[in-house]
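The material for today's practical consists of a large collection of protein records. An example says more than a description, so a record of this kind follows:
***
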Amino acid sequence: MRRVALIALLILPYVLWAACVMTGAATDDKKVLAPARLSETGLYDSSGAIDARNLFFVPQYPLWTDGAKKLRWIRLPEGAKVDVSDVDAWRFPVSTKLWKQFSWNGRKVETRMIWKTAESDWLFATYAWNEDQTDAALAPENGIANVAEIGRGKKHSIPAREDCLSCHQSSPAVVLGFNALQLSDDRDPLAPHAEPLPENAVTIRTLVQRGLLFPARPDLTANPPRIRERDPIARAALGYLSANCGGCHNDRVPLDRLGLVLLHDSKDGVPERAHATAVNASGRYVMPGISEDSSRIVVPGAPERSTLFYRMRSRRPSSQMPPLGTAIPDEEATELVRKWIESLQ
């Protein structure tokens, strides 16, 4: 009997470890492990279709990722609500999961998942799709290089976990695309790469109707959040910059020391801070060929002399913006920003 007990003690740690890997259960140190396969994360039901408990959503200002087609879902715990007390930094209940699927040329390449595992902990995982498109396997923490052709001789790489954290932890809210502005029912018709809004996609209105927000915030339905610019070009340009740049460039995180504030503020609804901190404002980056004392983030009427425009077009590691997640400039957005800067007086 003692021998059996000893063997049991020896194999018990392995059994517990295997259970954690297979189920994502918490270990003694509270670390939660991502499932080994995407099919085990809760995105799909037993038939292989998207689980009906997952809500489909479409942000009005999509993040640029080299022309990828994206699909997005969120699952809230049964009976739980999103805390929108701070309308610009939504707080999600524990066990919330979100997924974003990336496809190029009609093929699924990767699906990213973020999962709130504890009150102050989020798990980030990325899954690489197999050749026959039947499932996706958990990618290593340092990512996978050159997994898909995206055009112009460039290839897409699955990001490292630290790359994901660098953006998501630089924002006032860990979740970037599921917020008041992005889900507003007042959609911007000039938003770059705007996606059609299917009937099954949730918006602020449907979230309020379903009672999924706390407080209920009927004001977000009566007055949907929007970029409060009179000019349509300015509205679309600042909306794009808020979604693609504002996660890092805002005044609520460590990067506020840079002084550039591009994140939309739903409380006042006007982009005054973006104008004040970008237009005729000097930045730390100096564009080649321009003296340091005359370098400006945005020069009214002169996009070619504006560092913001220059860095949007660049894909050199030392100068490109955004610094991660893209190998090809967003031509539609840069043209929009060009028109906006030219319109400034």
In short: The longest strand covers residues 107-118. The chain has three domains: 1-33, 38-222, 232-343. Residues 60 and 182 are 5 Å apart (CA to CA).
